Amino acid sequence: TTLNHKTDKVNFFEKINENLILLNESLIEYLKFGFSAENTVYYCMWPNNNRYTKVIPHAYLIYDYMDELDLLESNHDELKHQHSVLLEKANLITVSAQKLYESIDEKYREKILLLPNAVDLDFVSKIEDTQNIPNEIRLIKNNYKRIVGYYGAIAPWVDFDLIEYLLQQNKSDFYLFIGPVFDTSEKVAYLLNNYENILFIKEMPREKIISYLKNFDKCIIPFIKNNITDSVSPVKVYEYLAAGKDVVSTNILECEKIQYIDVSNNKEEFSKNLQLSLKHKKDIIKNYVLENLWSKRVEKILEFMEKKK
After folding, report:
1. b/e map of 117-137 (b: 16 or more CB within 10 Å)?
2. Averaged over 177-199, what is the pLDDT?
3. Cα–Cα distance between 159 and 221 in angstroms, integer?
4. Which of 45, 101, 139, 192 shows its CA 20 to 30 Å from the CA of 2?
């Protein structure tokens, strides 16, 4: 269900594919007329989904604790309460990062699965098949040695001091950022006004991003290290690796766990890692990606559910 009218313009419902229907959240109470509890799994992704546990008949409750609560724009005390209630009610709790796992009371540990984010096989196939080279990419490649790319939210957790350092140190590289800007417009404007080797492109559909990703020479995760970023398993990491790209990251915990990422402890090391030639064999990375598909994560959930019957 959705109340996100910015991206999900659904007044009633929309069939996304054979097994997925998107419903306007204001109509959720009507689900009780079409679903029986014994055939329904209620999958919650946000603490405030708890208010529907009594509305939607279900025999099994999965709570996906996907982000630090500090990231959510709601009454924090109420969020913490709803979070605690869902931890108690859930038959299965999934978390994407070790730090999230450790933040949960030990009494719930037996019903927790640590499932980092992943990539889907369709994304991998589209990367291999796409031949399109965007116009911006063509222009950049005519004037610069390499393209260092990033896509995703351009938000306060992005380390702009690091980015400025990289722009100064690596002037033959061009830095291309794709995504929505949240609360950082002044910093974005500053970099654009003071450096020629950087460009910010607004958010675009996932299918379109693939053609940019395929033409990046290096991919980066330039996040400030803090409690929030240490609790994040970036989906883009798996997509970067699926494209066979070298990935350079700051030393956030979930990136440190992946041996195919060049983790950097400071800005000097980050810059040095960007200059290294291909460090990891592409066939080994491809095998790693195929072990980290969303389908593999689903298999683990189904295995857990089967064992707990």
Report:
1. bbbeeebbebbeebeeebebb
2. 97
3. 9
4. 101
